Amino acid sequence: MISNFWFLGTIFLLISWAASYAESEELHTHEETNKESPLDKMVSRKISASLNKHNHDDMKKEEVGADCQAYKGDIWVGGLSAILVFYLVILVVGAWAGWTRRGKEISQEQVMLAGRDLGLFVGVLTMGATWVGGGFINGSAQGVYSKGLIWTQAPFGYSLSLVLGGTFFAKKMRESGYVTMIDPFTQKYGKWGALMVLPAAVSEIFWCAAILGALGSTLHVILHLNDDISIIISAIIALCYTLFGGLVSVAYTDVIQIFFIVIGLFLALPFAMTHPAVANIYEAKLDDGVTPAWYGSVAPHEWGGWVDYALLCLLGGIPWQCYFQRVLSAQTSTRAQLLSYGGAAIALVMTGPSVLFGAVARATDWSQTDYPCTPSGDTEKLVMPLTLQYLTPPAVAWFGLGAISAAVMSSTDSSLLSASSLIARNVYQKVFRAGCGEREVVVALWVIILGNCILATTLAIQYKDIYALFVLCGDFTYVMLFPQLLLVIYWSKANTYGSVFSFILTVILRLSVGDKYLGLPAAFSFGVVTASCPTVEDPDHMCEGALPYRTFIMLIGLVVHIIVSAATDLSFCMAEVDLRWDFLNCYQKMGSVIVMRNTREMDTPVKSLKPGF
User: What is the pTM assigned to this prediction?
Assistant: First the structure.
């Protein structure tokens, strides 16, 4: 009871502190938070310059510019039929996959991991489909369109993160027989390990909300459907087959979805590139006269931010439950690694058409199309579906729209099941209902899936800037979960004291450095990079850019975790401090030796660890 009290109290204090901090900062004037940084100004100038190149009729664009986001028109019956056909196919395949598992014992492994018997072919495709989701495709196109290829680190970083995950984590996790990514934490740190569910599950839920919102905006612009209705219908379909069959339904629908994605994008790309309104994507150059404009550039003062985002994608792409759910469903540890490498190959291949669509949109003179204005501002996120609709024939756009919907659905179902699995197993079972039966956990999982679906759908409808919250949660997976996962897997001396102290410290540091998406000003800074960025008006102008502060916080959390864990281990195991001071119940006495009470291994006796290092 006491440990439950401390655990819930810690969570409550963390959430209350974060909420009060955000609320108090909102009371400040937005003079500083809304002030445009030199980086933002530079990016804004680049976007404006790029758009001006495509703008042959500025007055006309200004007149219709306000109508870009809410462009009206008749419902596109052909596109609507594509969505209906695709949704019907997905629903049938998901129901069939779940039906094939009828009669089998209902257990956590069966529902969450498809009984750990997914074939290699299905496993690789579901891994690829999970990564090549709606955010991957639409975000890559938007990134190239707005900032250039060099700033579009996400598809490359997240693809390579599968290689790192497969090499350093997949084999160890699968050999240990875990059911979720958080299992090693709760196994070793007890109920305190469930703290890691907070950033992991919340990130999945916000990601689900973000892509549902993106789908609603897409169908509103392309099909002229009500976006709220589109969001609700898509969520209900994903919910139905996820509830019906668990991971096996998700996996088999992913197979269909990845085929839609591949066929749709590769079929549409040649038509888009050869459209009369599209110039040669290699024709426009940067100031050096050699580099294609759509490659983009990184100014000297921007390298800190660039490195930060690159490492965030590369290392922060590892600690995601949707990834480890596939890894842990593999039949063997070797196959778990192959799933990772195969998924990485699919993601890298699909990066090609995704970024090229962004380059095509950038090279398009939109005044020669039926779309009333050049995508800018909020409509930049729609460059992918706009390119499909207005630069390809209707039949090709039909398949392309199916590809986008497939990408969104493959991410939605995965996020729902992943987040719900973490909460059902690592919070409900480990914290509140220790010792409950398998069927009770599965029933709780179904209820939590329903609740998470309602929550994500509500967020997608009510909060159009939900992407900002996802960005912050993406930071959390990098600065908090990656060092925690690294140490719990690779360092036997890591303990609850180091984990909890590091967790709380990184939360405080991350929120204290501020976040422009949430309007949080910085309470302190790690410093800035200053470099010359001359302009016509001011040849001596100096620009400032951020240092890689996310990486600094991640490293601080890693070092603090090591120091605190080592200090407590020395205190209890070597200095033989009385165990009554072991508030978190980490150690026990075995004969004449003090050893750690738990290891990360599943259902194994406590190992006798030698004292010291």
Answer: 0.85
